[in-house]
Amino acid sequence: MKIYQCGNCQHPVYFANTSCERCKSWLGYLPETDEMIALSPGGTVWDAPASATAGLRYCANHQHGVCNWLLPTERKENLCESCDLNNVIPNLSDPSHLPEWRKLERAKHRLVYALRRLKLPLESQMGGKRLPLAFDFLSEDDATEPVMTGHDSGLITINTNEANSVHREATRIQMQERYRTLIGHFRHEVGHYYWDVLVSENPAALAGFRELFGDDREDYQAALEKHYRNGSPPNWRDNYISEYATTHAWEDWAETWAHYLHLLDMLETANAFGMRTDPALVPDGMMTMHATFDPYEETDFNRIINACIPLTLAVNTLNRGMGRKDLYPFVINQSVRKKLVYVHELLRQSQVQGVW
C-alpha cells in the first residue's frame, strides 16, 4: 500500500482514515485519482476546498463507519465500487455484527485497491454468460446450516466469524495453519474467480496451468476429502507454498495467487517508505534490497521476488524481536517461484491483449 496524505495539511494518513489527526479535516478516498481528499461539510454534498475535484459525496456505507470512499455527486449509484460488490451483508439489527462488518470491509477495500492496480475486471464473461464478482458476508447466527468460506461462480462467501480474531486464531491452530487472516481469505478466494476469468477458457493458459499446478479436472470433492483424511504429503514443502495448496490444482492456484498479492502489497509499501536492506555482515549482497520501483508496474518478476526475499527476512526478524510471529512465515521454493512467474506473466499478457 502507498502512503496517503491528508488533502488539506499533507499529514500522512492510513488508507481507511475518515479524518486527519492533525488538522481534523474529514477525509475520503477517491479511487479515480487514488488520493485522500480533505472535505468540508456542505449539506448532502461535500466540497474539497484544497483540491480541483469538487462536488463529492461519501459512499452510502459511510454512515455505518465501514467505508471512506467517495463518489461524484452526479453519479446515480449510492455505493462505491467496492461496496457495490456486496450481495449480502451481516444483519445489522444485531449490533455485534457491525464491528465484524467493518473489519471485513477494510480487508475487501484493500483487495479492490489491488485489483484496480492490476487493471483486473470486477465483472467478466464465462461461457457467454455474465460473471460478476460478488460477496456474501454471512453469520452463523442467521444461517440454518454451517457457513463455509469459499467461492462459487463469482460469489465469494466469508463467514463473519473470521472477523473475530479469537475465533480465527483458534481455527488456525485447529487447522495447523501457519497463517490465517482476513486479507488472506479475500486474496485466496478471489484467486478462484480469476482462474475462471483468466485460465478456464484460455487453451494456452490452461495448458501452462496444468503443467505447473496439475490437472484441474480431478474430482475436487474427492481431493478435498482425501486431504482432510490423509493430510499433506511429507515432501510438500518442495513444491507448494502451503499444505492446503496440495489439496487440488485449484487450491494450489488460489494459494499462489494470494501470495502474489501478498508480495505486491509488501513491496509497494516498502517502496512508499523508501525501505532498503544492506547488512554488511552478509556477503555477496544476497540480503541487499532497495525498494525503488512500483511492483504493480514491474514487468520482470525476478526483480519483485529478489527484493521480497531480503525484505521478508528483515520484517520477520523485527517481529521476532517483539515476540511476535513471523510476518511472512513462508519459504518460496523454486517450484512456487515458477508458479508465481506464471501468475505474473498471465496478468501482464492479459493486460496487453485486453482480454476483458
Automatic annotation (TrEMBL):
Entries under Pfam families matching the protein: Peptidase_Mx (PF15887), Zn_ribbon_DZR_6 (PF10005)
Residue ranges occupied by any Zinc-ribbon domain in the UniProt entry: 4-94
InterPro entries membership: UCP012641, Zinc-ribbon_6_bact
Superkingdom field: Bacteria
Protein name: Zinc-ribbon domain-containing protein
Coiled coil: none
UniProt-listed Gene3D superfamilies: 3.40.390.70
